[in-house]
Design goal:
5-stranded mixed β-sheet, 3-stranded antiparallel β-sheet, 5 helices, 28% helix
Length: 184
Amino acid sequence: MAVSPPVCDFGWKAPDFTLPGTDGRSWSLKDVAGPNGTLVMFICNHCPYVKAVMDRIIRDAKDLAALDIGVAAISSNDAKEYPADSFDNMKAEAEKWGLPFPYLYDESQDVARAYGAACTPDFFGFNSEFELQYRGRLDASGKNPAPPDARRELFEAMKQVAESGQGPREQVASMGCSIKWKAK
């Protein structure tokens, strides 16, 4: 079922975290932060929305790194109910894709709850002061192949954040599969 998160709450402060990465090390928010901003995205292995845009996520992450914006991805899904999202499978996906950013496992789901993550993919773009400036979509393609002229909304927004500290006031919410929460 497709879910859309709320759009940006400008100035909301990024909650800190320390999570294990598929690369074998633990990462905190400050570890992944860049001098000009930070992009934290919630993704998972099995979601068709994420699968459809992974090549563009990787492209944009590389281009954002060149602008001194740190990037990290977090998977928070219930791996017991969705085994494709297990930590071992995350490691395999990170290797398969050659991810240029840390892919972190939020097994407790505490980080997803702290961020208010709603779907995969869900993008949180922060300025250098860890103030939220973007919570929109990657681009207009959803889970379809992007046309060659698709506007790079996430990249353009984060470039603006890197240059000015402020995100665009007009943003379109991301859409994707709901976070797979554990039963209480």
